Amino acid sequence: MSPLLEARGLGVGHRGRAVLSGIDLSLGPGRILCLLGPNGAGKTTLFRTLLGLLPPLAGEILLAGRPLAGIPRSEVAQVLAHVPQALTTPFAFRALDLVLMGASAHLGPFARPGRAETWLAMAAMESLGIAGLAGEEITRLSGGQRQMILIARALAQGAQIVVMDEPTASLDFANRIRVGQAIRALAERGTAVILSTHDPDQAAALGDAALLVGRGQVLASGLVRDVMTAERLSAVYDIPLRRESLSNGELHFRG
pTM value? Predict the structure, then answer.
């Protein structure tokens, strides 16, 4: 199956200064790629480049085989969605209105969302079990609820690829589980997901593949079990770790 998202020899950075280079990745439908690395390793810069918000310093990005640089932003929005680390807004949008912003990605520049877009937005919320939040103001919702709303927005957008920048970073245990379940549900629908995380256990539980970065370069890439060794993670995070394999095949890492 052809990849939906590819990077070839990609270099990323700011104002001509490279932060991360030598990036090759390929992400197909229904696959989850986890990006791991210490703070300052360039994970957010890579994501901003994959989203087309920063120009690459080297290499190229392909969406469904087409160079990202040559695709109009309106078309990119129909293929590629972004779930940020947290939602911060001073405006008391209703949750449904925020999800509608995703459903409106397929409308023209002056069109207003109508019955069809509202149906898509509500269907996305219902699929995540959060339809009851539709009329609630975003500013009154918990961090976990806001993340679920952002995932619903990506669903309503109908995007084939979702980029998530540390989607569970500030959430409590229960909400981390709920968001993890929602990420799995996206993949089961055929959506390609790339997410960053500082939690090796989360990457092992969710990911099909992993990309480990540090010291300005890709340190390892491939299947989660192959990439995430105790030796590599200990070196990247500068703390001794050991890897444990549970009876069900899951990996866990301990200090």
Answer: 0.89
